Amino acid sequence: MEICKNVGVELWQARQARGLSRAQASERTKLRRGQIEAIESNDIDALPPPAFLRGHVRAYAAELGLQPDDTANRYLAQFGITTSAGRTAESATPSVISLLRFRTAFTRAAMVAVLMVVGLLFLQSPGKARDISPIAAPTAAARDASPVSASPTKSSNFVAVAERSRSITYSRLGW
């Protein structure tokens, strides 16, 4: 396989031989006219990444009656993008999707680890005894010890309001 130093010129010559304008070639290949101009002038900076460029050159070469894979491989090779088995070197590197999946998995694992450490520190920390039992109504002895036993205490009012709101909430939820 002979490597032409300027595959863009080869594509331009093939287009001229077929009597096609850039507008006609653009319409037939569904490539923008600017992309065809960039391919023919070897303006790699105006072209998409190699994975997409390979498809553009293949489509353009097929429309011009050239061998699509061979032309695309030679076109990419002139810029130092090596090919093996019809694949560009960049397609062998990890894709953006796999990098995003790794980053997402790593972030989730880090969050779980942080939550576990915080939980362990909370359980191991010295301090007040953690009473997580619900608020109980005052006992009869506590009510009798209050100075005004005829009127309800603030804590018993609080418990009654809490009980009432809990029953209202449960009834609204249908429990």
Structure description:
By secondary structure, this protein is mostly helical. The radius of gyration is 38 Å and the shape is rod-shaped. About 60% of the residues lie in helices and about 0% in strands. It has 3 domains: about 5-90, 434 Repressor (Amino-terminal Domain), CATH 1.10.260; about 95-125; about 140-175, no CATH class. The model is unreliable at about 85-95 (pLDDT under 50).
Give the topology, please.
Blueprint: H1 7-18, H2 22-29, H3 33-40, H4 50-63, H5 68-77, E1 83-84, E2 87-88, H6 96-124, H7 140-145, H8 154-173
Antiparallel strand pairs: 1-2
Helix pairs in contact: 4-5
Features:
single chain, 175 residues, mainly alpha, 434 Repressor (Amino-terminal Domain), 3 domains, two-stranded antiparallel sheet, 8 helices, 2 strands, 61% helix, 2% strand
Reported by name, the CATH topology of the largest domain is 434 Repressor (Amino-terminal Domain)
Put simply, the count of helices is: 8
CATH class of the largest domain: Mainly Alpha
How far apart are the first and last residues' alpha carbons, in Å? 78 Å
Strand order across the largest sheet: 1-2
In the CATH classification, which architecture of the largest domain applies?
Answer: Orthogonal Bundle
H/E topology pattern: HHHHHEEHHH
Query: CATH H-level name of the largest domain... which superfamily?
Result: lambda repressor-like DNA-binding domains
- Average pLDDT, to the nearest integer? 74
Number of self-contained structural domains:
3
What is the molecular shape? Answer: rod-shaped
Return Rg in Å: 38 Å
Strand content: under 5%
Helix content: 55-70%
Model regions low in confidence, pLDDT < 50 over at least 5 residues? 86-93
Q: Largest beta sheet, briefly? A: 2 strands, antiparallel
- Structural class computed from helices and strand pairing: mainly alpha
